[in-house]
Write a structure and sequence with these properties.
Helix content is 78%, strand content 0%. The chain contains 19 helices and no strands.
Length: 375
């Protein structure tokens, strides 16, 4: 194979596919237009349905639901018209997710995390370790590729698509593996937005335990926010802190995966070890952006007036929400049922089993660590 020809086992980090400005811009226009539609629905549907029997449900549905649903509908329409694949280069899920995560860091004031640091960090460490270990082991038992094992374990144990992206960079996973994992995350996260708050109410869990449970086991930050909104204000606050704590652990997992794959899985057959600089090359740089944004925001808000602090929060959250809406629209647009069929039942079985373990373990930990906890 010539040096100019990429391997068919190409990394999602190394290669982004062929770039054609015209089709890229067409795809980007579709993403932005669909995102605007999702935002309009989020803002207006509760008003349209406020005097109907669907008022409560309409008020509880958050932007991720509309974004994914519209993304899937537009996906189907573009596929039926035969143009989806031609403009798919504009569906930049990774870019929008990474941008949203960096901006998200500016909403995480370090002092807020510190108040719930003990139970949140302990739950995060125990939950991530337990669920990651189970998923890695079970996927290995079913004979899945090590890179796909890493993506599945990271996604279900930490925070869904963003963790899968970090893992993809660390292990040099293929773009198809990342797209498949993202599809599974959405497939399992959407029902949890509605089912888990209902189960929390059925089990008569306290607001703090409910929030810690939701934040601990729902895979995506956006889905956690949506579920927390349904559960109530206090569960939403606790769920956000718990999920953000787990988000902050992405970097540690990424470093561990980078080291493992660089020095163990991909070690040269002749015994030559990769250079240590490989750890830096593979480390997901957006994690640094997340932490940096958090530090800058904390320092700024400490000296800002209440009015400036509110203005800053409004602007940052608006930017974050738009970036994440575009990311979830892109996920809906990138979802391909054919990829699920091609991968077979084993990855779906692994993800389903890991999700059950995640739900049970998160409930146990939340019930112990957040018992009697109040804001």
């Amino acid at each position: 194979m010539s040096a100019a020809s990429p391997s068919p086992q190409r990394s999602v980090v190394e290669f982004g596919g062929g770039f054609r400005p015209t089709t890229f811009l067409a795809g980007l226009v579709v993403v932005v237009a669909t995102g605007v539609g999702a935002r309009l629905l989020t803002e207006n549907v509760p008003t349209w349905l406020e005097d109907t029997a669907l008022a409560d449900a309409a008020a509880a549905i958050e932007s991720p639901v509309y974004a994914i649903a519209l993304g899937l509908l537009v996906n189907a329409a573009l596929s039926a018209a035969g143009v989806r694949d031609r403009i798919a280069s504009g569906f930049r899920t990774e870019f929008f997710i990474k941008t949203g995560l960096v901006v998200l860091g500016a909403t995480v004031v370090l002092s807020v995390i510190a108040r719930a640091a003990g139970p949140a960090i302990l739950q995060g460490l125990l939950l991530i370790s337990g669920v990651f270990a189970f998923t890695w082991w079970f996927a290995g038992r079913l004979g899945l590729d090590d890179r796909l094992r890493a993506l599945l374990a990271s996604a279900v144990a930490i925070c869904g698509v963003s963790a899968a992206i970090a893992a993809a960079g660390a292990v040099r996973a293929r773009k198809e593996q990342l797209a498949y994992t993202a599809s599974l995350v959405i497939l399992f996260a959407l029902p949890s937005i509605f089912v888990l708050p209902w189960l929390a109410d059925l089990l008569d869990l306290s607001p703090a335990v409910t929030g810690a449970w939701l934040g601990g086991n729902i895979d995506t930050t956006a889905a956690v926010t949506a579920a927390g909104t349904i559960a109530g204000e206090e569960p939403l606050q606790i769920a956000s802190v718990v999920k953000l704590t787990q988000n902050a652990l992405i970097g540690f997992v990424a470093v561990g995966l980078t080291a493992w794959f660089a020095f163990k899985v991909e070690r040269d057959p002749d015994g030559e070890r990769p250079r240590a600089i490989e750890l830096w090359h593979r480390f997901p740089k957006f994690v640094i952006g997340f932490v940096t944004a958090s530090v800058i925001a904390t320092l700024y808000l400490e000296g800002a007036s209440e009015a400036r602090a509110e203005e800053f929060e409004t602007v940052v959250k608006g930017l974050r929400d738009y970036a994440l809406i575009l990311a979830f629209v892109s996920i809906g647009l990138e979802f391909k049922v054919s990829s699920l069929r091609e991968a077979g039942w084993r990855p779906i079985g692994v993800f389903a089993a890991a999700t059950v373990v995640n739900i049970v373990l998160a409930l146990a930990l939340a019930s112990v660590l957040f018992a009697g906890f109040t804001i």
